[in-house]
Write the structure tokens for this entry.
Amino acid sequence: MTNNKNTKSTLKKDINLDAPFHVSGRTKYVDDLPELEGTCFAKAYYSRCAHGEIKKINFSKAEKLNGVVKILSHKDVPGENQIGGIVRDEPLLADKEVHFYGQPILLIIAESETIAEKAMKLIEVDYKEKEIIVDPREAYKKGSVLSSSRTFKLGNPTSKFKKCAYVFEGEADSGGQEHLYLETQGAYAIPKDQGGLLIHSSTQGPTAVQKVTANVLGLNMSQVEINVNRIGGGFGGKEDQASHWAALAGFGAFITKRPVKLILSRHEDLQMTGKRHPYRSDYKIGLDKDLKIIAYTASFYQNGGAAADLSPAVLERTLFHASNSYFIPNIEVTAHPCKTNLPPNTAFRGFGGPQGKFVIEAAIHRAANELNIPAHNIQKANLFKNGDEFSFGQKVENCEATKCWNDLSKRYELKRLEKEIEHFNKENKYFKKGIALQPICFGISFTNTPMNNARALVHVYNDGSVGVSTGAVEMGQGVNTKMVQVAAQAFGLTLDKIRLEDTNTTRVANTSPTAASATADLNGKALQDACQQIKDRILPLAGELLKEKNLKNISFVDGKVKAKRKNIDWVDLVQTALLRRINMSAKGHYSTPRINFDKKKEKGHPFAYHVYGNSIFVVTLDCIRGTYEFEAVKIVHDFGASMNKAVDLGQIEGGLVQGMGWMTLEDVVYNKKGLLKSNTLATYKVPDVYFVPKEIEVHFLKTNTDNLAILKSKAVGEPPLMYGLGAYFSIINAILAFNPNASISYDAPITTEKILMTLYS
Ligand code: MTE
Ligand code: HPA
Ligand code: MOS
């Protein structure tokens, strides 16, 4: 809830309006909603087999347990037993077969969560196990895929390799990543008067939840209302995967006609939900003697899990970002969406982009290591420039790659830093420092062009205060604060006059999920449109009251409506307008101009703009223990004209550390039977405050180019995660300083165990 007393006075910019509520524990999530009388509690009984035929299900004992209201199977689903978004390949509840360990089979509805848990233990299922595949290369070999492979191509790399001075080939693999949002998945479904449902869902995609639930229950979408106050983190994990739990809660409520709450425990969430896609990849890179990359090919084997979910879209973004910040005139990249028996993997900050970038960075590092030069010599020689072409046909415009690079190396004295590290490494035998530079370039827009649209609803009330609804979901990234700022700026009001409402499908419909970092751009521009409509309606009245003929001379600032000589209070204008029966509500709409993509040709202009940046990592490695400490990360980032430095800085720091975790600590381990071994926080490590670099410095690059960002403030949600790749390569460089002949395998994450083994390889 963003209207509060803490922000009364000014149009103060650089604050996050939610912060006081978060730090004092007053923020409300789904499980904090007051429970209605008669509320039931649901649990999903899930498969203990990663691939098999269901031979027998016996839940008669569980059903008889005192306090169990009902146990439902796929046979009870009133609509279609199907929740797949892009591909219709995922049942709500398993039917004849199970395809991953953790797949929901039955829905238990009970008077309490404890009873539901007890009932779970009384259920018996017999499986006839089938072949279990967990590796994407093996899946691909056996023809187990989720959708079709895709290839992006520019020039002709195959013929150019022959002309290259240096050619290197190899493999590069990156691991999965657990979202670990603080609020686990969950929903609270409430039957409505005259049929239909209201569902409070912890989702990034209220419309996706609405659509899936309506389909499963055989209802019209108009009978299903989805409400989201805010969510306790999503990181992509709730873009599509919140729908499953909301539809199950909705199913329970629909059948029992009672409110049903379904909240996953942390253990269930870890076990049952998909993660970042692990990738295995092959690369071949060719350079000329000036270190220009002449040719590059890569094949990506995406570990999609047991159902398509968002994998085809994630796969596409891997290709869009396969060359990171570098112009490669001859490039051919192919990606295969492989079907394995893991929980369906899904969106995760960067959406396949980080996995694509890891491979080109590995290829560059390999080349540099073989040529005995720093990788940043190759990185720098190949940065994008205006007029270059991406493999998918878009031309590079407003490129900040070189500016970020030069600013970073000058500001943080790269040359001196390198000398210091060289000196340190000469002086120390068992401690070695490593340095790496990590540039980023990330395209902003949903790669699926039709998704780039949004709407907003604005009411101006009689007292001059303003209510705003948009399709944006607040998940910690600060979009609510940005929406409040947009409305406040449009009407010239202080932030406390703007109330940001829950995200609700009955007020703002057919929304795209809060994703692709584009939420503030899309919803902010729709909001500007709505505010402008209201202003246009009251301007003639303002002109009359201010005796100003030229309406262009009228402005809205500091709670006043001003002409050259005279001004009136905003509140007075609003009240007069309402007396004159002027409509003081408006619905705004925005759809991103210019963007397009032709999937047949794999060419187009899919991104509204790109975000650039560069970073330096310095790490000190204890070569006896394999432990390390990040001394410093320094960043020059292209924010455009940041509209909120506090929020944007938070996104950089959070994204950076999350990316570093993915590359180093976070090891998602499944055994050969498809069982998640890293299924507790004792066995899955995420960065804590002691892991965070001792020093993080972020410089806001000053640019003032016209772009399609909201108030020229560029999208900031996902790009910083990709700085995290620098953590990997700085550690590798420290290892090589200790043992120049170490055998480097380019398989992230580089855990402490792997560091030790590589040091002495
Ligand atoms: N920041 C916080 N605190 N919590 C989150 O869940 N999700 C990230 C990013 N930053 C996330 C976050 C992801 S995956 C995306 S796509 C963007 O925020 C989405 O929000 P935006 O479009 O408003 O940037
Ligand atoms: N990014 C994030 N989420 C998405 C996208 C995308 O490009 N396309 C569909 N969902
Ligand atoms: Mo973010 S991975 O687009 O939700």
